[in-house]
Design a protein that fits this description.
It is built from 21 helices and two strands. The chain is mostly helical.
Length: 424
Amino acid sequence: MAIKGITVKYCHIVTFFLMFGYLFFFRMADKFGLPLSSGQTNLIQMIIVLRVVGVAFEINGSWLAVGKAKKSESKEELLSKDGIVKDADFLEIINPTFIDLFHYSFNYIGLLTGPYYRYRTFDDYFRLPFSKYVDCFGFTINTLRMVPLHISLYLALSNIWPLEYVLSEEHNNRHFVYRMLYPWALFAAFRQRIYSGMTLAESVCTSVGFGAYPVKGRNKSGHGPTVGYLSLKEMSDDEAKRTQYDFNTVESVDMWGSETVVTLRDSMKVWNKAVQYWVAMVVYKRFPIKPLKIHAAFFVSVIWHGYHAGYFFCIYFCPFYLMAEDIYYKLYYKDATGTKKKIIGFIMWFLRSHSKSYQAVAFLLLTFDRIWIYYSSMHHYWYGVWLVFLILGYILKQVHKINRLKKDADSNVGNIREKNEKTQ
């Protein structure tokens, strides 16, 4: 009702606050004398919030982009470097009816565990011929091939290293190195559970051809085609039969990338990719205060997951780690080569992995009292390490800046002397 009943200029903002207010009320129902719903219902509500808010921003964004295109004097602004029309979908108005919005919001594909997809993807599934010609069976089998391994690893790891053990006295009496590395096992088990769940969710899409687009659209998770969208819409059935497809639009996680990327920033891009896309498009790119964009994005991610302290400890502390990581990345890793790059990369990977594991324990323990018991038993050491890394990073950054200025000054003096010698 908010989307269709309010002007396009403000429908996305009103819808955002209405849906997150509803989600907050839904989770706090017991405070109002109502029974709490099950965890499965909570997952469904989370996906519905993403869809309803997302389509409101799609509608608003399409009107803004079309208006900007009309003001543009030339088409050059709409072209990529290779001359292909960039994001051509934004040149047409997205204006679904109330019935369309209802069907999109409650479409069973992806409703329980995702992945998130745009209204455009939902509409294309019924209007374009791609789902008829893509190899659904082949893609589904390929998607599911690793699920048995993920489930087996999850059962084995969670049985050998249970979560509740970190709150026991026996755990506290263990050697500090053992306790320091225990979160690695917990987070490894958690990842296997998420991998299997997201993969099964993707297989629902691939089995019915949902989210299939021609490869030449350079499709991205959550978004779909990024180039030449209008030409894809005009594709004939004969062309659709011969073209090559992918399901990148509904890809939730890059498992290999999640395990191997060096930095926390990169690991966030390959983890729950469709939801990350939603956060980027709805919050990060639209938030008006540039220095607070990253904090706004993480804060919305936290309240979308829930109000438990564990989500704040796990998710909202990431920007502070990123502050330190970015410094070392630019100073030492970005321009490194060969063996030096591999060594620095391994160190950064280890620190990134350890940080995520340490934070994941809070995500799993959820409540503040349980988190505080565990972190107190570890003397909150990793936050101290973060602080030391951050302070040291700022010092090294300033030293590097001073050395660079001195080097540039010496170089300028040398050039001046060389010119004077030549003139003489």
